[in-house]
Fold this sequence. Notes:
Layout: E1 7-8, E2 16-30, E3 33-46, E4 52-53, H1 58-73
Antiparallel strand pairs: 1-2, 2-3, 3-4
Amino acid sequence: MASAEQTVCVLCGKGHVIRQKRDVAFRQWSDKGYIHCRVTVPIDSCDRCDANYSFDPGIDKILDDAFQREYDKR
């Protein structure tokens, strides 16, 4: 999202959606037990109601790559 482009929040209708990078920790079950991961992903959030959006299709690849990296370490 370009810095000049401002998107109105679809939930509250008043706030503006801003893209931020956030650290996300998750765990996923595998044949080796739980795999714990930590990644930084771009998240769009409303500056008024704090709603979080993650429409970026690249997030799935980031999460999959993080899981595979940690899985390979075991």
